[in-house]
Amino acid sequence: MKNFDISVLDLAPVKQGKTIHDTFQDSLSLANHAENLDYKRFWLAEHHNMESIASSATSVLIGFIANGTKKIRVGSGGIMLPNHSSLVIAEQFGTLESLFPGRIDLGLGRAPGTDGLTAQALGRNPAIINEQFPRQILELQKYFSKENSNALVRAIPGEGLDIPMYILGSSTDSAWLAAELGLPYAFAGHFAPEQMDMAFKIYREHFEPSKYLDRPFVLACVNGVAAETSEEAHFLSTTLFQAFINIIRNDRKPFPAPVEDMDEIWSAMEKSMVLQKLKFSFIGNQEEIAEQLKNFQEKYQVDELMINSHIYDHQKRLESYKIIRKAKNSLVG
């Protein structure tokens, strides 16, 4: 089994009965906890118009987390690039890298991170996304390059800085792009598991070495809910299940507390849909998590596994990441 790093994906989840200020403090607490447990990186994801997720101003939140930690890498998982000007993102991340040298990652996606009406409010043009996204990545590479110092438009801060870029995907489209550009590839297995196998196959088989990367680098994001007992873990995971039911029902309310019986909440069809979407969810005690990690890694051979954990109780969430770290450490790579 190939050895792999583990990292954290945080959506800055807003919980029922809590404020957004509470959310940000919990995110910082989690980042410090992850740093102490030697997780490799802490990423935040851009979403909009959702009562349950507070990471819309992703660059600002990255700065808050980086300022409150010391060594863990902090970045975006990701910035939805067609929502923004390439120059503005270059300047924002140039500023972050200048403030926190050697600690900033720039993960880039093409999806809107929201609904169609909000995507329109963000100024997206769906007709040109497929050509706009690759062009914007090339623009970012140009703005970050030393060679751009003679250009009429420059990113200051940003120019000449080494800011690692990752292509994010939830289908096979971005796998082709990441392979063509020779960039690391991160797949959103935590909510879109259906095409992960094919996306990794495409990326690995068609990867072209670049000045940024000489061999494929694969990162998979999954859900993780760990506890001292299997029973407690499955109880805690009902917050995750309810969150996905709310997505299916187009109900964006804050994340709910766990419940004893999911069958009182979901229909048979909803249950099937949720469990399909949450195929890559590791739920259980330390031994069970270790076995699930082992089985996943033996099949996919990823370079890094990023864990997203929807747990209502903050202390239980911290404990979950601690147990996952212990489970990972128990594996022999």
TrEMBL record:
Domain of life of the organism encoding this protein: Bacteria
Any one GO molecular function term: oxidoreductase activity, acting on paired donors, with incorporation or reduction of molecular oxygen
Pfam family, any one: Bac_luciferase
A GO cellular component entry from the record: cytosol
Secretion signal span: none
Alphabetized InterPro entries for the sequence: Bact_Lucif_Oxidored, CmoO-like, Luciferase-like_dom, Luciferase-like_sf
Ranges of residues in domain Luciferase-like: 20-298
PANTHER family attached to this UniProt entry: LUCIFERASE-LIKE MONOOXYGENASE (PTHR30137:SF6)
UniProt family annotation: To bacterial alkanal monooxygenase alpha and beta chains.
Protein name per its UniProtKB record: Luciferase-like monooxygenase
Species name: Chryseobacterium formosense
Phylogenetic classification of the source organism: Bacteria, Pseudomonadati, Bacteroidota, Flavobacteriia, Flavobacteriales
